[in-house]
Structures are given as structure tokens and as C-alpha cells.
Amino acid sequence: MPNITSMFLLLAFICLMTGIFSPDIVIKWGIPHLKNRKNILITFSGVIIGCSFLYALNENPMISVTEAASSTRSQSSKPLEKVIYQIGEVGTLHETTLELNSVNQTEEFLSINIVLQNHSDEVLAYNPYQFILKTNTGGSLVPNVDDETTLKAGELAPGDEVSGTLIYTYPLDEGYSFEYRPVATNALASITFDLEIEALQVVSQPKVMGIGDMVTNESIDLQVTKVERLNKTELSTPKKGYEYVKVDLMLKNKTDDTLIFFPYHFELSDQYNQKLKPMTSLIETENLLKMTEIVSGGVIEGSLMFEIPKNATNLMLYYTLPTLFSKETLSVNLELEHEVKNTLTPSLSFNENWLFGERLVPIELENMILTVFSYDKVNETTYSKAKDGKSFIIIDVQLENRSETDKNYSAYDFKLLTDKGELILPSLTLIDNDHEFKSGSLAMESSIEGLLIFEVDDFDTQLSLIYSPSQWEHSQKLVIPLS
């Protein structure tokens, strides 16, 4: 609020300007003793000079400016209070939280596992270069190792979180601090963690898996046994400037349930980090890995074929687990070959849902009576011939409906189990058009008999017929050994 001196000074200045241009107006405002312009100017000039002198004495603006500048400098020089968090704690900045779960140290790398969460109402952009490793000697490092587990740049919607690993190549030092600097905040604002060198969990550098190694997790074992580069196959030639890579591998099911493996769960990458899917056409199909179902403890063996730029390097094979709830990926370096000490072997196991019977002995499941009469192994039928190295297994079966309603049946209620644990569906090959077991509806108290045909490898000798009218994973199944 202005003081009285300022008001008089402003009023005198206005009156002075009015008197300069129109002294008669001033006289009419009630100052009759001022008869001319000279007296008016002298009077109000004196008022202005006097008020200015009083204003200078009372306010002293130079002192005020100096004091204000001094106060500003003292406030800016006051250090900001900064919270230093420890491993395992959750750091907070504005509406962002950062949790540092673990820190692992090897001879060359330091990896930090984090969880970043956005608690604001706006989208939060983030990238790995916002996470800085600071050494006690004053160095600042950003993540410089990229693999499948490392944190990638992205955006967090309100309420979302992201987790990942940051890997640094670091010089030996006595200690470190770890900082996260959001893009939208002041450069001095950060979430800081203290990494005491004694507190770091020192771990040995993980072995890089290559050809011959068993790559494993809780669900499967994967082993690449051989890798070949080919300029052509019997049926096709690669594009100009390209070549084929053939990967022989084995997979084992370590779960308690059956698993289905698809060739498109595999990818191959090269030095340009381009991801390639296996080829499925225009190449020979002998031993080519296809969609395969195997029981617990079962092992499948097959080949994958990829078309890659000629002389491509840094070849890596990736396998993503076939589950809806996991994105876990196993990797194999195809340019690193180790001695093959052991190969995967089957160890089949069956839980209480698998019911065993005998050939020629009727057995009941879900009001259906199954009888397996005979089986035969042949190389050809009336209409077709088995592929090289394979044979047809023909099985004579009968189903009888003991329920009080009609029951549907299908040839695909049956599968053939090999000694390696692979489940094979019936072949579409016709036998003679009269005796094949087909699909239909079976009236109560009636039966149907027919022939099932399967194509198997010649070396598959321990075979069993599997019957399950329900296709649910945990439904009961009948197992009838054929030999």
C-alpha cells in the first residue's frame, strides 16, 4: 500500500503538469492568490522537490535493493535437503516412486534391478539414460549393456509400473551412488540411493550358453546339438545374398502336465539384432520341428531352418516359453560351441489322471467302454505310402456307449504315445474307405468299431494308445500299451 509521501509527490506532479499547460484551470480549482503561470510553477516545483527529499530519506531504495540481493544470495546458497535411500527401500520424488530391489556385482559389470511406478494422473516417459551410476571419484555412468532383461525406453500410464535391469560397465571404485532424474523435473531433483561396496552381493559372471549346453528353467530343458550353414537344400535355394542356417535341437518337458511346442516360439537374431522366424515351406520336411505335444518327462528332437544374410555373425537363438503368464526367454549363442557331455533323455511320468489298461480287455471311461483288439505296422496302405524312415501303425478299436444319452465320438479322441513322450494325432491317410474309425454320434447301448492309423518313426517301438473323450488338460485318459 503506498505511503502519504508518495501520494503527495504524485499529486504535486499532476498539478505541476496541469499548471504548465493551463494555469487558469488551477485558479478555478480554488487557488485564487496564484495569478500567473510563474507562481504556479514555482509552488508545485517546490512541493515536488520537498516530497522527493522526504521520500529519499524514508525509503532509501538503494539499501532495499542491496538487502534484497543479499537475501536472495543467502537463500540460493542454502543447501537443499536431500534424502539418501538404501538398497531395498522405496524412493519418492513428486508422484514417482523408485524401488531398488537388488544390486549384483561381477568382475566387469554391475547390474541393478529396479521397479519404477507412476502415481500421477499423467503419462510418465522414461528411458535408461535417466538412471545414473555415480562413483566416489566423481564419474557418472549410464547403462551400456543391452539384453533381453534390461530396461527399455517407454511410457507409464497413471498407476502403472515397470521393472527391469540396468547394467553398467564400471571402473573399480570404493563406492557408488545411484540416481534417477525424471525428464520433467528440475535437473537438481533426483531419487538417490547409496550403494555401499560392502553391501553389494558379489556373484560370479553367468556362463554364456552355446551349442551343446543344456539351457534350463523350471518348465523345460533346451539343448542345441548342431548348427550348419547351407547354400541350398534339395528343394530350395535361398535369396541372392542369403544362406540357410539349420539348427538341430532337443526339448524336454519338466512340468507335470503335457506341453505343446511350436516352431514359432523360436527366433534367430544376428549382428543387426533383426529377429527371424523359422521357415516352414519350400524346404525338406524330414526331421523338421513341427507343432508337437509331449507328456511330462518327454523329449522331442528336430531341426529349425532360418534364412539369414550371408556370413551374418553374432547368431543367437531365442525360445519364448509357451505360457500365457510368462515372457521368459531362453537364449543360446550359436557361435559358441562347448563339448557335448550328455544329451537330453526322456523320463516319462504319469499322474493320477492317467489310467492304464490292457489290449483285448475292455476298460470304461466316462460311460464309454474301449476295447483295443489288434494293431499292425505297415509301410503302405491301399491309397498311400509312408515317408522314408517312417511306418504306419494301424489299430483296431471298439467303443461302446453305456450312458443313458447319445455320445459323440471322434478319431481325434485318440492319440499315440511314443517311448520319447510325443503324442501323435491320427493320420488323415485313408486305409480303404470302409473300415476307418470316423466321427459321429453313438446311441446308448450301441457300439462302433473301426481302424485308426498313425504315422511314426521306424525307431519308435514302445507305443501306447491314449483315449480321452474330453479334451480338457486335466481330464482322465486311458493308456493301452500296444507291446
Automatic annotation (TrEMBL):
Residue stretches making up the DUF4352 domain: 83-182, 210-327, 365-473
Keywords of this entry: Membrane, Signal, Transmembrane, Transmembrane helix
Keyword set includes Signal: yes
Regions that span the bilayer: 6-27, 39-57
InterPro entries according to UniProt: DUF4352 (IPR029051), Immunoprotect_excell_Ig-like (IPR029050)
Protein name: DUF4352 domain-containing protein
Taxonomic path: Bacteria, Bacillati, Bacillota, Erysipelotrichia, Erysipelotrichales
